Amino acid sequence: MSSSKMRYYTPSRDIKKSPYSLTLKFINTGRSSLQSLKLKTICANAQNMLFDANANSDSGNSPLSSLDESRMFPYIKRETFIKESPLILREELKNIKQSISASQSNYFRKMIEMPERKRFEKTLILDLDETLIHSSYTGICDHHLQGIPNIDFSVRPYARELLEYASNNFELVIFTASQKSYADRILNFLDPNNEFISMRIYREHCIRTEKGFIKDLRIFSGRSMKNLILVDNTLLSFAFQLDNGIPISSWYGDKNDNELFKLINFLKIIKEAPDVRDQLKSTFILSML
């Protein structure tokens, strides 16, 4: 993709702030036998819909060449993407719903006129911080970008493979709650030739609440909700459209992490779904908590 085709949505001015990073904090309250039963039920519902990425164990194979269903185990625990118990998730969702009632009508002010769809039916929307990369001011990172401010960051394992796979199977959008001045420097590193990412969207298109930022998918004019998928490490981000979300675990630098590899495997299933909401709802059951 040439740089001339890249779509940017920019604020009236860039504000120099530290990168946005919102991570839900959960309290381990323990589980009763009833809660354990509910969790087992959720795990059972998810078993037939996901694949275990640990099948990528043969040496000499590239991550993408190994993405063959026949090489994968036919099940995976629900905790592949969601680590918290239903009880904790239910309480968090309750708090989220209480915080967003006053923000419901704001999305139309942030509408984006999407270009005519040319190749792929479905749109994959990826978060940036703690989903694709982790940035830090400690200097203990793999990459350093000089500028104002300097940025030290590491790239999550399989992030580049994910971008390559997604760009060949989806309309790929990066939707970050970070400022453009910060995010673009990271994205230019990840996709220097504008080969993968079709559009970049920043904080000004998020819905601000007292608990953080929500990414309301209704802003994507000309795109059907049945074809939109949002991958984010923050549950709050897709609070308005829970059945369009894939909640992925936050990444803080673990070199052995393989969550994005698992995500690629899951996306191979989702891209064939007539309505992604049906698949995601039955897999993660967020809207039913």
From TrEMBL:
SUPFAM superfamilies in alphabetical order: HAD-like
InterPro entries in the record: Dullard_phosphatase, FCP1_dom, HAD-like_sf, HAD_sf, TIM50
Gene3D superfamilies associated with the record: HAD superfamily/HAD-like
Domain FCP1 homology: 117-270
GO molecular function annotation: phosphatase activity
Name by which UniProt lists this protein: FCP1 homology domain-containing protein
Taxonomic source organism: Stentor coeruleus
